[in-house]
Design a protein that fits this description.
8-stranded antiparallel β-sheet, disordered N terminus, DNA Polymerase III, Chain A, domain 2, 35% strand, 21% helix, 9-stranded antiparallel β-sheet
Length: 407
Amino acid sequence: MKKSVLTATAIGANVNFQPISGLELKEIVGKLAVCVEKNNSLPVLDMAKFDSNGITTTNLEASCIVPNKSFYSGVGLLEFQTLNVISRAMKPTDKLAIMFNSETFESSVLLNGVKYGNFQGSDIAEFPLIPTKVDNYAGLLDCNMLKKYVGFASKDDLRPALTGVYFNEGEVVATDAHCMVWGKQKTTLSNCIIPAIASKLTGAYKVSYNDTNVKFENNQATYVFRKIDEKYSDYKAVIPTGGRYTLTVGKSQLIEALNKVVPHGNTTTKQVTLYISANNVTLCTQDLDFSRESTISLECDFVERPLTESEIEHAKKRNESIAKKFANDGSKKVKEQLVLEAQKLAELNAELAAVKPPHLEIAFNGTFLLKCLQSTDTETIDLVMSSPTRACIINERILIMPIMIKD
């Protein structure tokens, strides 16, 4: 269908426009808003740039270019908030056109063929240059996937590496040092930390990169993000293997139980303690300052794997190391006696572990545990644990650290 043509004679110019509808403008404003911050250090960053490339917004760390050039004439800057207010005031069928005066830096807005108003901008030369030459193609990425990871990224500006999502050798990782999620990704991005703001994008984008930036591009918009130039921690080193205990419980039942008990616990630690036996898990929270306590029990499956020979041997060596450390000032005979006692203790612990009924007491931050559970896409939860003080794995892709049990 051919677009209607609007003539801007009302403001003394013989310029033809192809006006944009209110619905189209709202979509453009939504894309541009991703890269606009409320409190900018430079006034020019509050502006949207209109030129031959399209409409651009930036906060220096992230930039957006929408390639729609049909509804404005000339080049110039218009305050983004003004554009946002106009889009909200427009009906879906309203038509908008803009004309820029590069000498006075003013923009004249026409709404449905009638002059809506004049708005003062600034010199377009003051607008920052956008690094669009990012040519190393990495593949196609569904940005909806990023939303599953960014919730695990840190919000601590003192640890900038953890505030983004890490892409490396076919894997994607996010962590705040309390919880961590990891999975597979199909791009060739490697050793690249993408800022969390990229999770605001929806749909599939072609991804390209260079040493400092990563570009997301499709037919509707182009985004350029500055990579977080920090070294990411060795996340693989903290993923435990060979967990002895596996708790299997319904996801919805566990989330419902946590939502009931966590509000009655300590408001600082958010501690929820799990008392786990062969077919029952009891969730308990308490706040001694306000004499509050809440307890809920759920049916579950709990399996304890016997210690392997290698684990027993490792326990012996660890006890030997501890014994030697505390016997440095003693005689050789004392050292040998301590090592022997440590070996006997390790063997006794292994024997007891092999015959006692399955039982474990472990505590988590209830808020963190809820976040982990809500990020899974299965009906049941498999929580694999090694001890009350070591990292635990949920459904083979989410890690959560327990907290020290406080009575």
